[in-house]
Specification:
The protein has 361 residues and is an all-alpha fold. The protein has 2 domains: 6-88, no CATH class; 91-353, no CATH class. The chain is 65% helix and 0% strand. The protein has 14 helices and no strands. The chain has helices at residues 6-22, 31-35, 43-52, 58-62, 75-89, 94-102, 104-124, 139-167, 175-187, 210-239, 250-275, 286-308, 315-332, 340-353. The chain crosses the membrane at residues 99-123, 143-165, 217-239, 254-274, 286-308, 314-335.
Length: 361
């Protein structure tokens, strides 16, 4: 059943139209220059603006029309609601997306089920030979389990991004637009507050780049870990170099720093989320978002622990825990906040392909 998004879109439209008349925050991030291109906003326009928003909250603390003013503006919360609803509405199936966006308990339940499965698999499919954690679960068994669990969610995400592009009226774009979007995402430009001093996410009276740094630690740490897995795959199949790999090998030189960065990023983002005002975001998904941050941290932390415990009696139990965390992360990609990276990149590409607003660059 489609989500009833009428109220959230109507409220976001009301607030955006007031902002568009004021334009005090025009230099804060990509949202405000983008809104100046038009005077009326269709639902697809609001979805695009919502996914451009990084919830830095600088506009809220700078605004003269927040409560107790009769306009009662809260742009970060209004766009957060539309943004989350876009992830849920365009996901397949919607019911699963709504469940995991809002319920950290459901995420914990899936983790427990995955954990039980991998403890059973380690007992049922223990190979006759192998080294490292492959002595507990054969390489081919891991491939048979994880390749479908990774590719199927990516396929669902691709369908969701396609629908997002259609809904927001995304047109033709060139390579230069993609490169600009990647540059924007790599630098987390929209978390700089428009002036380089950072945003007000956890404290309205203080500019800080801490959220930007923690996001970068998480993003680059994740990419390093993915590169470590990819390099290990190439070494295994192309060169016949099988795991376990020594410390001074490409998978470990990429994966260990990546894991440390992810743990630091997850801890920092969770800390900032606890300090921030929940009313300036999508309140109903706070628990799901926090659970997902903790899941990312758990994936990295259990991976590091597994590497440290290689060759000990803890290898088997830690392998089951780590594989369960990775499995849940993969399965939840289309339904949790993990999908925001794909939607946000699509929003940045679409924005880069549009003409600069009047008076802009």
């Amino acid at each position: 059943m489609p989500l009833d998004t009428t109220s959230s879109f109507d409220e976001a439209r009301r607030q955006i139209e007031i902002c568009n008349a004021c334009r005090y925050c025009e230099g804060f991030c990509s949202v405000f220059p983008a809104m100046t291109r038009q005077k009326a906003f269709a639902d697809g326009d609001l979805t695009q603006l919502a996914n451009l928003c990084h919830n830095c909250r600088g506009c809220y603390y700078a605004c003269q029309y927040t409560a107790p003013h009769e306009f009662n503006l809260n742009i970060p919360a209004a766009l957060a609601e539309v943004r989350v609803e876009s992830w849920e509405r365009l996901a397949r199936p919607q019911a699963i997306a709504r469940l995991f966006q809002t319920h950290g308990v459901a995420m914990a339940g899936l983790l427990a089920a995955a954990l039980a499965f991998f403890f059973w698999a380690l007992a049922a499919f223990k190979p006759q030979d192998g080294a490292g954690f492959y002595a507990h679960l054969a390489h081919n068994t891991m491939v048979a389990i994880f390749v479908p669990a990774f590719l199927a969610p990516l396929g669902l995400i691709a369908l969701s991004v396609r629908d997002y592009w259609r809904e927001t009226g995304g047109g033709r774009f060139r390579l230069i637009h993609v490169l600009r979007a990647f540059d924007n995402a790599a630098r987390m430009k929209n978390l700089s507050g428009g002036h380089g001093e950072g945003c007000n996410f956890e404290d309205g009276d203080r500019f800080s780049n801490r959220r930007r740094v923690f996001h970068q630690l998480m993003m680059y740490g994740f990419l390093l870990c993915f590169a470590a897995t990819a390099s290990g795959t190439v070494m295994h199949y192309a060169f016949g170099w099988e795991a376990p790999y020594p410390l001074f090998s490409l998978p470990k030189l990429l994966g260990v720093p990546g894991g440390v960065m992810m743990v630091a990023g997850a801890a920092g983002l969770a800390w900032l989320k606890l300090r921030a005002d929940a009313a300036l975001g999508a309140v109903r998904v706070w628990g799901g978002e926090m659970a997902f941050i903790l899941l990312l941290g758990a994936v990295a932390l259990t991976g590091l622990a597994l590497y440290a415990a290689t060759g000990t009696d803890l290898t088997g139990p830690l392998l089951a825990i780590h594989l369960a965390c990775v499995m849940v992360l993969f399965l939840l990609m289309p339904f949790s906040k993990m999908v925001h990276g794909f939607f946000r990149l699509a929003a940045l590409v679409a924005e880069a392909a549009k003409p600069a607003p009047a008076g802009g660059e």
